[in-house]
């Protein structure tokens, strides 16, 4: 962020005060208003920013720190890799958060937190003060687990495409450039990782593309887990019915290194695998800003929170959302769940800043749709309720479940879900 | 036939549940429960195309649908699984909140 942008953000704030959006008196800590900084404009952070403004009726000032120009959705991004959607279909601007909801957007990256002073330092050198901080830092890759990926150029050649953006396009180009008869190899890390069914959906999308355009080509899934981690029977049925002879699923393949120059994957117990296109999902942890602030208290990978408020167990006044969390039992790392975390945090922050008790009984759902072709979809759904005795979120017995079978009807609902969650998060 | 009788009984139980819920549940809590529906049904129930809007809809009709999802009387892809995650009282409070929102 340059100086001019900072000044612009400042004048937007004063304009908001004049218009009564921040109610004039809002700037004092602990009063009716307050200042919240949200780091990360993904499903969690953008939702929290919007709902804090909505539910405080504009009394709490919200600054969203996000380096990207626009929101690019990970859900539906596998369809860009498969070729049935374009980047424009999964991209939403941040304008409405500013224009409709009065969120101040600072295009920069947060690099450090001073929890005692309640300040966040940005890469551009500016410092933002907060009464409450929301971190929605997403995931970072643990490259140290795959030494060969640190070789010069390795990360440009062997893609993860597990953060939707330039790598989504780049992987599509690699698949288009691959000659028919080639092999696409997808390596999946041990759970937990972002979006449990996502890799298996991706395999379907690539296989669908191959079945249409390159029928002699193969999809090789090399999974570190003992079995498919989500919607297993539904994915296996799709592979058997739709992609027989194209998809080869191999469990218990724990990747230990990658030789990008020769296109080779190396495993703990299995023989090396060579392929024309390698797609490696490395092991993951919470994003750097949370990790470096000492908030990854679970295994030095994930952040632990109080589920009634999403406040960190390691630092006061810091609320953490989304894939960065040490999840509750059966809670997936998903965009849908991050959006729900954002609303729990928003309600708690608005309550706490105005001296009320936060809600005692969070209840929210997860719905997750996976495309097994360009039109047909399967889902998994769950309902999660706060358990006061165990102080965690538990799935409600008897609720939730999966599709009976893949269907085009659920394909329509999947796109309706996408339109609605994008609007709920950003519009 | 059996399911019709059951859902009739459900609707009857509902009226009572709805009034009980109003008396007991903190409105801020209900607003947060309802917000968890927005991912598919739009912020405050004002849905984008493809899913049913909930804002300003009839409380009784929404409740009957939910109870029929819960009992299995009304077929669904996903709502029969989600509705079972809430008590009747919680559902009654949530539909009352949506019914009170502007369309």
Q: Return Rg of chain A in Å.
A: 22 Å
Number of domains of chain A: 2
Number of strands of chain A: 25
CATH class of the largest domain in chain A: Alpha Beta
Major sheet strand order of chain A: 5-2-1-9-21
Structural class of chain A: alpha/beta
CATH architecture of the largest domain in chain A: 3-Layer(bba) Sandwich
**Average pLDDT taken over every residue of chain A:** 93
Q: Approximately how much beta-strand content do the residues of chain B carry? A: under 5%
User: What distance lies between the first and last C-alpha atoms of chain A, to the nearest angstrom?
Assistant: 24 Å
- Report the CATH topology name of the largest domain in chain A: FAD/NAD(P)-binding domain
Shape of chain B: globular
Largest chain-chain contact? A-B, 47 and 28 residues
Biggest beta sheet summary of chain B: none
Can you identify the CATH class of chain B?
Answer: Mainly Alpha
Largest β sheet strand count, sense and barrel closure of chain A: 5 strands, parallel
Distance between the termini of chain B: 35 Å
Q: How much strand content do the residues of chain A show?
A: 15-25%
What CATH architecture of chain B would you give?
Orthogonal Bundle
Kindly state the percentage of residues in helix of chain A: 25-40%
Topology:
The complex is a heterodimer of chains A (427) and B (103).
Chain A: H1 3-18, E1 35-39, H2 43-55, E2 61-65, E3 70-72, H3 77-82, E4 91-93, H4 95-99, E5 104-106, E6 110-114, E7 119-122, E8 127-129, E9 132-135, E10 139-141, H5 154-157, H6 166-177, E11 183-188, H7 198-213, E12 218-223, H8 232-242, E13 247-250, E14 255-259, E15 264-267, E16 273-274, E17 277-280, E18 284-286, H9 288-292, E19 305-306, E20 311-312, E21 318-320, H10 335-353, E22 363-371, E23 377-387, E24 392-395, E25 401-402, H11 408-426
Parallel strand pairs in A: 1-2, 1-9, 2-5, 9-21, 11-12, 11-17, 12-13
Antiparallel strand pairs in A: 3-4, 6-7, 7-8, 10-18, 14-15, 15-16, 19-20, 22-23, 23-24, 23-25
Helix pairs in contact in A: 2-10, 2-11, 7-8
Chain B: H1 2-24, H2 27-35, H3 38-41, H4 59-71, H5 79-83, H6 88-99
Helix pairs in contact in B: 1-4, 1-6, 2-6, 4-6
